[in-house]
UniProtKB/TrEMBL annotation:
PANTHER family in the cross-refs: PHOSPHOENOLPYRUVATE-PROTEIN PHOSPHOTRANSFERASE
Pfam families to which the protein is assigned, alphabetical: PEP-utilisers_N, PEP-utilizers, PEP-utilizers_C
Keywords in alphabetical order: Kinase, Magnesium, Metal-binding, Transferase
Source organism of this protein record: Xaviernesmea oryzae
Protein name, as recorded: Phosphotransferase system, enzyme I, PtsI
Domain PEP-utilising enzyme mobile: 144-215
Needed cofactors: Mg(2+)
Amino acid sequence: MAAPLRLKATSASPGVATGPAYIAEPLAAAASPPSNLSGHAELGNAIKTAIRELQNLAAGPDLEGMDIIEFQIEVLQDPTLTEMAGARIDAGENVAFAWAGTLDGYIRELECSEEERLRARAVDILDIKNRVLSVLTGTSLDDFPAGSIYVGRDMEPSRFLAHDWSAGGGIALYAGSAVGHVALLARSRSVPMVVGVGQFTTEGRQHIEVDGDSGVVVLQTARENATPAQFGHPATSTAPIADNGSLHTADGEQVLLSINVNAPGEVDSIPAATTAGIGLMRSEFAVTSLSDAANEEKQFAIYRRLLDWADGRTVTVRMLDIGGDKPLAGLTGASSLRGVRLLLARPEIARVQARALLRAGIFSNLRVLLPMVTFPSEIDDLRQIYREEASELTRRGVPHGIPPIGMMVEVPAAALMLDRFESADFFSFGTNDLTQYLFASAREDAGFAPHQGRTVPAVLRLLSQAVKLAGGKPVSICGDMASDPSRTADLLAAGIRHFSVAAARLPAIRSAIVGLNADGTKAAGE
């Protein structure tokens, strides 16, 4: 058996701890109650609630912790912050974005300081920002299992103070500071801690070791006391599946089979090895309010969780497909826009999501999909946002990577002119919207369903033409048509070689593919 991997780090608190890894997750989502308050009053109440929570934490016996909490309370009581956020609210910004934008500017100044102690203060301000956002969003700061090794980019002081360390545990941070507040608290509680490990991949609950004496993280080669996950969908095919989730038609042509995901928890019962990865992650189902859309840390943790599950396989995240008939709670004034048009009209939403995706892009094989694209310039404009945010992350010293950026093909005008979209790295056909707009009839209309079968030939002809216009760039299909085994032959004949389907449909589509030739005809003997 191979020796455990040892990663060099910087010691922040002495001691050695071994336990299951806890990968920092997003805040537990909860629906935000409707509010009749003005933005100013809503923010004022959220700040008061955050101060009360911090005062409860400061009531503990830890004198060092009291000093840190008092600093955070002092910052929250600074009228300058509320005035700056108030000015943004008066300018029309949503209260959550106004607060996050104000604190982000403060955080960036600290992160770029030449003094390490000032740079270490940035995590305190991040803590304050997220605490108030959690109140505005109606969420709570989750604890993690006792005895775990906390693994993340950084850690908020209030999260450290709220955790019960009596059962042991430790901390391993990708970044962090040995002179920061969490390091100080860790030393006062004798909690082993290392910082500056750099990005590394480990599974949740896999046992790892933090050696705060030597400044080392030891990754074990296997989980301890773990039971294999069971795949909850009945197998209807014994077709061999390669490690990359591919299979072959009867005449030997390779086809990729991925899954569609709406929320990160959906992958828990699905072994990644049974798929080529995630072909479509509909981020709007995991980011359900404007406050969520302002929460970069929550989004980053969602994408990171999916990338960890994929274990090197491709994860394709569609940027927020909101607007029109897909409203985002708290968003007003843009009801006629949807998808990429709304993201460009409200760039503050796009920039937060872009930063979270850029930060997640260093972990594995991430791709980004732009929704409802009609014109090539829309891709260029979003790329510019990614370039600007990447430049800012570089200035701040935050690890990141620019992922491939592709487009959903769901507007007929775009499908007919696909050869003009030279800046798109890949294409994914969304047959639900494509069918709706091709036939000028909403899917919800009572008269649409009875005639849906009659629309198929036209959709297939458009798909076949568009695949040819793609010019050899990667092409996939992720709409309902992809999950229908009665259409698999037609889609193969149209040139589709990558299907992304609902997880429950994997066995049926797999069986359909292996019984067909690449041109869609039935294999001999079928």
